[in-house]
């Protein structure tokens, strides 16, 4: 506290047409601390970050960096002031070498143009700082995993001797081991006196890494807290402005429900498989049941979902719907058979950015009806209104481009898209990834409600807690094959699932047993 | 009165924000330039013998008809993030097959209908070949249709045996040279076809689905949209419309020039689509805009001739007009203008905005 803040933002307001994104928000960042910026989607976190990085110009208020007032007219201004940012989606060029990525724009220049030898040597030095010293900077970036690319992006940010480093959702695609590596790097940067602004949806991670936090809600400042002084319940209450009773009521919702598995299954596949993607696997889905699929990244959980939906064409296996044999080789066939699949990749395989919320919502229904039978305007409006209300999509303007919505609300629109097709089988692949706790709860409530209505739901999540909480039955996958199926009950916890996976584990790789973002152990 | 006035200004404003607004302005400007050179340029006379209106404007409308046909087809193809370079050659194929048929089958109305049908069918089939290469084989649209562009020109020459076949058939000739209500039949047909295609894509869900696969093919596929079927539809439509354009072009002189009919018209079609505000990246498309773009290209062609610009300088003149138009349409240039206006007169620039909102 003794040192003056390196960044001080006072009374920041930013308005967009029709929305006040930030309303007189205060924010301070001290050197040598990790400061978490907390809030639901749409609370104004991204807007505040973009104000600090010069992407948005502020309407009101003052930004001081290192004591001097600054007008940040663009990202270049922010970089000159020592503010570097690493975004959620890694912004690097995969086609050039690691070293070139790190040093892009800061290459060593000699009389004959760029001195690549020295540039790569300096790149190695910078990479050393994030624990990647042994990497060959001449290799193309595409040879690295996403986690390592993230570290490369951070090392790139340190080239410019930044005093402020902003990390926006850096852990959303990392597993537990990789998160720990990242945290080691963050801590060492912090100890060198860098001020780090950290944004994450994973509360456990925020508690593990941050020293101080600022909470925003609906564009307003809710308070600044020392992490040690605020417990999770209070923090969540501050973020959402309501007690999180809903999440508790979901607690083991499955254990109170009876699933009738005696009738013919809605969907049953035997030996469903595809070379290089999934070994032949049996899967049975019953009406009114939530089947959870647990497994680490790359275990085959997404592959299985895609085969069921026909997003990838199965190479072997037989499929029966109710009691009739069926062929599902494409998404349109699956939709006709009342199977719907919400992809884990919301950005590339879910929303269509340039279409409006309304068009995104009705797209699957329309595709099912065929082009020649457009949905009558009245029916269309009723459909859109119904699902936007039921799922509480905000802002409630169906004509807005969907790219203007926050991640959680985009996810709700997509859920509406699939619900509108009235599916018998609904596969949700990571529906809660990267969205705030409020939207998460709403989506999980919807899953329970759907199962109660008789839909067979497949719920895939890397957060085992959620899987355990929602599922009536859990299928455990590992290394692209099915290990076992576990029925819900008191004995089913995220720990038992982890143990099941661990028993099968290759001994040299014990660290990867912990799935990303598991909240169970804490 | 006042509400009438505000509704009129707001209509003007929506027109101003239409992507093809600048295309309309450009047409008006070109006509104004021509009128400066010859004050009677816009005059329209009446020829009692043929029952037709005559004048430069009528000539422009007639010339715009074939360009509008290929532009509308191109617009649909471009909306799927593709391109169809073969339309000019398909025009020649359609002209060749109809002229050959008429030359041997004589001057009956039945022969004319058969020629029409055969040309349309061949255009659609060659469009389907494009679609197979693109959606089944998975070749890039640019390459597939480039191949078809070369093959089509060759096919036209094979059909006529390398000759520029001429034929005489009054019914067929009427398509391009006849008049109804004083207006050229070819223009009226073009208007009808543009309206029919526009209604078809906007009243059905075809437009939405074409846009969806153009914007994001992966997401659209997972939403159950049948990309392959849609690609077949747009490339077949483009081929058939190119055949219509070929019929228009050859019927006006009752001769097919296998080397020159439709030569480089694919470029005109692409320009018309872009002028009409459809992005080459695919997605949102505008049929009306493409038709207005075609009208502008025709006006431009006639202006070049009228002003006596030497034929070697014609492409450069065309390029200048089109570049100016694209600059006016570009968001960045518009923002630049807006920023300057806002700086000089911040009050006036805000006032009308509020009026519209109210």
From TrEMBL, chain A:
Pfam families on file: ABC_tran
Annotated region described as Disordered, given as residue ranges: 503-522
Statement: the UniProt record of this protein carries the keyword Repeat: yes
All residue ranges annotated as the ABC transporter domain in the record: 7-243, 261-504
MF-aspect GO terms: ATP binding; ATP hydrolysis activity
Top-rank taxon, per record: Bacteria
Name of this protein: Sugar ABC transporter ATP-binding protein
Classification lineage: Bacteria, Bacillati, Actinomycetota, Actinomycetes, Micrococcales
